[in-house]
Amino acid sequence: MTATLSPGAWPALVLNADYRPLSYYPLSVWSWQDAVKAVFLDRVNIVEYYERQVSSASFQMRLPSVVSLKTFIRPARQPAFTRFNVFLRDRFSCQYCESRDDLTFDHVIPRSRGGQTTWENVVAACSPCNLRKGGMMPDEARMVPRQRPFQPTVFDLHQNGRHFPPNYLHDSWVDYLYWDTELDP
């Protein structure tokens, strides 16, 4: 379930066997139906519950709000090179003017000048900045990205994803989402 979350949907936060979310952005959640099915198939442990219950003629069960997988899923070492992941690496802001509107991506060294479509040459850019820079080199356009483009790790993307929480976070999820963040003094 990656759509807009609402309290009425009763989603379950899905943790890996080490009690870390499978993904921070998008947040790893299942519908309550998928969570209950996984419980009956003995694929997850229930960590936290909602007050809400479901029942049938033969059983009654509180809905799980947090589940952990019984089998550890090894995280990917390198994130996929996708438009979304470029935006996430760049925190959904134009690397030239910091706008968050009308994002696209820009080749720092234009393709017409031999630039490639790689992590190290692509940045998030708003359409106006992208059009203004056009096929020019950064020094010609006097537009240098605020951050040098780089290939992020999965950890980098998870860290950035924490800055963009979904529309709905149940209170029982907070301890499992932020337990490994650095505490303020």
UniProtKB/TrEMBL annotation:
InterPro entries listed in its UniProt record: HNH_5 (IPR029471), HNH_nuc (IPR003615), NA-targeting_endonuclease (IPR052892)
GO molecular function terms noted in the UniProt entry: endonuclease activity
Keywords from the named record: Endonuclease, Hydrolase, Nuclease
Pfam families found in the cross-reference section: HNH_5
Superkingdom, natural source: Bacteria
Span of domain HNH nuclease: 81-131
SMART domains with a match to the protein in the record: HNHc (SM00507)
Keyword match Chloroplast: no
Protein name, per record: HNH endonuclease
Record lineage: Bacteria, Pseudomonadati, Pseudomonadota, Alphaproteobacteria, Hyphomicrobiales
